[in-house]
Amino acid sequence: MITSKDHKGIKMRINAFVNLFSSWQPQDFPFYVTLASICPSKDSNFFNLRFQFLLSSFLLLASSCHQKADIEKQEGSVAVIQVDLSQSRTGKLSEFFEPEINYIWLEDELEEAQLNSNLQQIVFHGDKIYALDNNGCKCISMFNKSGKYLGRIGAYGEGPGEYHDLGSLIVVNEELVLLEGFSGDIMWFSLEGEFLRESNLKGFSGIGVFSEFDERFYFYNIARNSGEFFVQSLNMKLQDTINYMSYHPERLESGMTGRNYFQKSKHHLYFGMTFLDTIYQFQNQQLVPKYVFEYGNYGQDLERLNGMEIMERITYMNTQGKFYFRGRYQVSEKQLYTILSYEGDFYNLFYAQESSKSNLIESVIINDIDGGFNVPMLPNGFAPGKLGFTMPGKAFYQALMTKKKQMGQVEYESWVKGVGANLAKTAFAGKVSENPVLIVYTLK
Questions:
Q1: I need a labelling partner for 91 at 20 to 30 A (CA). Which of 67, 83, 339, 350 fits?
Q2: Is the dihedral angle over the CA atoms 273, 277, 278, 279 positive or is it negative?
Q3: What is d(CA 81, CA 69) in angstroms, rounded to the nearest whole number?
Q4: Beta bridge mates, 54
């Protein structure tokens, strides 16, 4: 059972939400005491219905704490995730991931296949991998699922059918859709990279996603002024704008690009923004709270933070700040994974959907699956339920050689012939390459 002390932060949100319901002024409330700004701009009758739905959900949560586990299993319910530093522990990969790690070196045997090691985005779709390289080749490179180079979309330029900047790459109805950075250009390509058509949409940042669940585009923008919104949605015809998450001057915000803020599971689209304590789910063209982090005594002093300038605030959060959400996460049907920060350190958080249990993992996650490298954190999302990190081929090989010294020759030889075979094979294949090795884990 959740105690009244545990619910102090939640009670603040609920009280503010009740006040909001009676006053109908969502723009007047800070984010950390209200969830009003999640409601999209629509006509007033529709707006009222959404507020009634959300208010009912929150009042149910407040009055029925002892039924928390049952409530969280219902569609659209709010899961309150307790984050307690005193309960942090070491963890093993097998607790949270399927018993197979996939190592994929994006090969560079051809000169045109060479990539910058710091890629903007990596997309898994079908039997292909697409890599966005905005710093090196300024292109979209295509590989098969084993890492063999297939070609590139290298239409860099300012003319028709050319892009000047790489924002996001998304897949819509078996076509590639490229959102440019800040120009508003949207370009369609075949899955093989053939240019099809283009359009222009002014006023978006180029960070977006397509939801096949409701056949709508969702775009993230950095809102800085009253009347602006962080999320906008358009239909397939790039019409019928719906706005979400209005700007509020007292809300704690990061001003970051938002590249990882949208995530999909197999059945839902989610939105989570750095520093905020809530991950939302899109339901019936509404943005509703799905996961709320409750930090208790380990949370921020919001009054102090709101008195800081933006750069001072970011520096403080990166060095001395208490627990906060970093905007990187993945959701499977059984688990939520995210990265939290506390006083400059990182923690991996795994939340089990069915048991409502959270596991706060400190330091590294022990690799007990194939005995390979331990995992500090998992910042890259490759596809729904698949996440991991990347490492240049050279660095991956050197890490293997370091492990060899630690193990000793006899143990090492036995390991590379057994469970370590795939890791070692990949390391030797890319040992002189700057192209990345993708280390991919699948959430249970």
A1: 67
A2: positive
A3: 11
A4: none
Q: Indicate whether this model's pTM tops 0.85.
A: no
pLDDT in tens, the chain (444 residues): 333 333 444 444 433 333 333 333 333 333 332 333 333 443 433 334 333 333 333 333 333 333 333 333 344 589 999 999 999 999 999 999 999 999 999 999 899 999 987 899 999 999 999 999 988 888 999 999 999 999 999 887 777 778 878 889 999 999 999 998 777 889 999 999 999 999 888 777 789 999 999 999 999 988 888 889 999 999 999 999 999 999 887 776 666 778 899 999 999 999 999 988 999 999 999 999 999 999 999 998 877 887 788 788 888 888 899 999 999 999 999 999 999 999 999 999 999 999 999 999 998 999 999 999 999 999 999 999 999 999 999 999 999 999 999 999 999 999 999 999 999 999 999 999 999 999 999 999
Query: In three state form, how does the secondary structure of the chain look?
Result: CCCCCCCHHHHHHHHHHHHHHHHCCHHHCCHHHCCHHHCCCCCHHHHHHHHHHHHHHHHHHHHCHHHHHHHHCCCCCCEEEECCHHHCEEEEHHHHECCCCEEEECCCCCHHHCCCCCCCEEEEECCEEEEEECCCCCEEEEEECCCCEEEEECCECCCCCCECCCCEEEEECCEEEEECCCCCEEEEECCCCCEEEEEECCCCCCEEEEECCCCEEEEECCCCCCCCEEEEEEECCCCCCEEEEECCCCCCCCCCCCCCCEEECCCCEEEECCCCCEEEEEECCEEEEEEEEECHHHCCCHHHHHCCCHHHHHHHHHHCCCCEEEEEEEECCCEEEEEEEECCEEEEEEEECCCCEEEEEEEEEECCCCCCCCECCCCEEEECCEEEEEEEHHHHHHHHHHHHHHHCHHHHHHHHCCCCHHHHHHHHHCCCCCCEEEEEEEEC
Buried b (16+ CB within 10 A) or exposed e, 389-400: bbbbbbbbbebb
Q: What are phi and psi of 435, to 5 degrees?
A: -65, 145
Alpha-carbon distance 435 to 243, whole Å?
39
Q: Are 298 and 292 in contact (CB under 8 A)?
A: no
